């Protein structure tokens, strides 16, 4: 059960805004080989960004976008991904009713099909609110049932599944061939349920990795929304713990 390891740089958003190049250099120095990344900052072209990433041995695996971007400006997203060699585009959304889930499912099917035509795979990224129940059914279960598995796949987030009170590995096992990217983050013990570095909290990653291998997950993506340490220290701890667990494909 070994996987290539990527970073979602939301974790180091402050550092990236202050020193884009230096932050990416530190990510690569820790050992990460993949990154979920969007367009470069002002003053840097995509070609220059790609040159930097190539020098650092960092592969863009995908990017996160808004529903509006995916609906109105899909070409520029897919053009970017083709240029940097990424193939996934992920979206998060919020549902306040069963009807909203059903409407979103139709929109996601259209977007997913359009992405597929352009050689890109559309992923849905969950938080904990998708485990709100409508008529006794989780919003995420409705969404998965009402979307076409060939066009709408998942980027499941282990922390948010746990935060919703479910077992991340058990939920992942329901996503056969439907979860190419897995966001891994841990949770501190205690009532606050604060974010923890991978391997420092209460999640059973041995079970999660076994499930990920079974369902065909391609990349593990480290993300930590907030940290009690410096974020760069946090992502190093997560990476080193993954190494100790024997989860990293060298």
Explain this structure to me?
By secondary structure, this protein is an alpha/beta fold. It has a single domain, classed as Alpha-Beta Barrel (TIM Barrel), CATH 3.20.20.150. The protein has 11 helices and 12 strands. Strands 1-2-3-4-5-8-9-12 form an 8-stranded parallel β-barrel. A two-stranded antiparallel sheet has the order 6-7. Strands 10-11 form a two-stranded antiparallel sheet. It is globular, with a radius of gyration of 17 Å.
Outline the secondary-structure elements.
Elements lengths: L4 E3 L5 H6 L1 H11 L3 E3 L9 H11 L2 E6 L2 H6 L1 H11 L3 E4 L6 H20 L3 E5 L7 E2 L2 E2 H8 L5 E6 H6 L4 H5 L8 E4 L1 E2 L7 E2 L8 H11 L3 E4 L8 H14 L6
Parallel strand pairs: 1-2, 1-12, 2-3, 3-4, 4-5, 5-8, 8-9, 9-12
Antiparallel strand pairs: 6-7, 10-11
Helix pairs in contact: 2-11, 6-7
Short overview:
This protein has 250 residues and is an alpha/beta fold. It is 44% helix and 17% strand.
Q: What gyration radius follows from the Cα positions, in whole Å? A: 17 Å
**Fraction of residues in helices?**
40-55%
CATH superfamily: Divalent-metal-dependent TIM barrel enzymes
Counting H and I runs of at least 4 residues, what is the number of helices? 11
Distance between the termini: 12 Å
Judging by the overall fold, what is the CATH architecture?
A: Alpha-Beta Barrel
Strand order of the largest sheet: 1-2-3-4-5-8-9-12
* Count of distinct structural domains: 1
What is the CATH topology classification name? TIM Barrel
Q: Say how many strands there are.
A: 12
Query: What sequence of helices (H) and strands (E) makes up the elements?
Result: EHHEHEHHEHEEEHEHHEEEHEH
């Amino acid at each position: 059960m070994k996987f290539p390891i990527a970073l979602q740089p939301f974790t180091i958003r402050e550092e990236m805004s202050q020193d884009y190049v230096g932050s990416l250099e530190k990510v690569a120095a820790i050992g990460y080989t993949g990154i979920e990344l969007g367009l470069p900052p002002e003053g840097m072209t995509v070609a220059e960004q790609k040159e930097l990433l190539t020098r650092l041995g960092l592969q863009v695996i995908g990017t996160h976008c808004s529903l509006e971007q995916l609906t109105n400006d899909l070409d520029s997203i897919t053009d970017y991904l083709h240029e940097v060699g990424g193939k996934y585009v992920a979206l998060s959304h919020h549902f306040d009713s069963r009807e909203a889930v059903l409407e979103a499912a139709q929109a996601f099917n259209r977007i997913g099909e359009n992405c597929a035509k352009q050689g890109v795979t559309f992923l849905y990224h969950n938080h904990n609110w998708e485990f709100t129940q409508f008529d006794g059914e989780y919003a995420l279960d409705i969404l998965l049932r009402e979307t076409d598995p060939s066009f709408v796949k998942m980027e499941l987030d282990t922390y948010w599944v746990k935060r919703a009170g479910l077992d991340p590995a058990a939920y992942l096992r329901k996503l056969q061939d439907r979860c190419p990217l897995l966001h891994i983050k841990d949770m501190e013990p205690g009532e606050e349920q604060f974010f923890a570095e991978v391997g420092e909290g209460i999640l059973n990653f041995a079970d999660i990795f076994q499930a990920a291998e079974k369902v065909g997950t391609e990349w593990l993506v480290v993300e930590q929304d907030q940290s009690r340490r410096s974020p760069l220290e946090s992502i190093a701890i997560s990476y080193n713990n993954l190494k100790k667990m024997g989860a990293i494909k060298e």
